[in-house]
Amino acid sequence: MSNVLQTEQRLWQQLAARGEVQGEPPAHPHTPWAVRCLMGAAGWLGALFFQFFLVGTVFVAARENGVAMAVTGLAMIALAALLYWRGGGIAAGQFALAVSLSGQGMAVFGLTEALGFTRVAESAGFWAALALFEAALAWLVPNRLHRLLCGLGAWIGLAGAVHLLMAGSKPEDWLLLTWSLGWLVPLGAALAAGFTLAEARLCAHGRHAVLEPLADATLLFTLAAALVVTGMSHPLAWLDGPDAARIPLAHWAAGGLVTVMLAGFALAECRRLALGQAMQGAVLGGLVAFGALMAAAPAVVAGVLALGLALRRASMPWQGLGVASIAIGFIWYYSALHWTLLAKSATLAAAGVLLLAGRHWLLHRAQMEAA
Hints:
This protein has helices at residues 3-17, 33-59, 66-86, 90-115, 117-121, 124-140, 144-167, 177-197, 199-204, 208-231, 242-245, 249-272, 277-293, 298-313, 316-335, 341-370. By secondary structure, the protein is mainly alpha-helical. The chain has a domain at 173-371.
């Protein structure tokens, strides 16, 4: 909520306490989308000219000095944070966003230049530090879009650190991403489900505004990583030895763990809705069976979980992400090469039959309870 809206609500509450007004405060008129687009474009245009000036005065002079570039980037981030804290219109917010993103890129690039690009890029500690840096920015800078982008940056840094730790002496082996991302997918799913279940308490404690964009970033990264794990395949892994042959098992590990998260969320929802034991057993049994059939396509299982979380939160963006993940996950799973065409067709057909049977049973159960 902006500072202007907070001030208006506080003034309305003071007037209501004096008995001078009654009812709810009048709705705040929204700026038309065309005006918002123009103001946002003005902010980015101003940031572009500002950065041209900065490149012409500082970057060219310090192009061989990584420390100076990093310090300049940190100064740009501080300027953007100051603009966010002071508040302002759409143009000021977009100007601050562009300056902050450019400052982050300059700070990271300058640091890698100062320490040696190749050595730093292959260091898990650097990626972990990048994740902490982005997480700190997401926590300190009070802007929703900035927090969302920094949250994504934190997850990317964490993914790089996990991959390098697992790859060891073979950082160029990108096939191991199926394992590094495969472990992060259930972690992200668990965090998104935990945020959804605790959302009411977070609102009561005043933490929702900070954590909601981070939850958006977590769900977005989780679904994207699940799609990568689903689409990557290694059909000739057995030619490279037993270690490489274990790579396709990452699909099963990620899909199985996300199925556990899906079942846990469904159980919590059944208890919240006070459903009977028979209904709880049927829902859990159907979801576990569906997850077992689609375990090799973790993007589909993660999309189903995202759809459930979206319905719980009444969130259209989360619902759109869930539907897109399910659709793309089905396509990528069917076109991947780690299973035969017959096996994939059989699992997809069985999953479809299971869903139709579950729908029929739920409708019949609802009609019986209504009667």
